Amino acid sequence: MPFCMKCGMEIPEDAEYCHECGKKVDTMTKAxxxxxxxxxxxx
Length: 43
Prior knowledge:
Layout: no helix or strand
């Protein structure tokens, strides 16, 4: 699942707004899932 760019809460794939902070979810800027995040891989 993606995460809100504003508050960091996990949001459903089809959400238009974050249920926590109310920010409109832009599909182009929706944060990627932390489980597949490149910044959490060992270097």
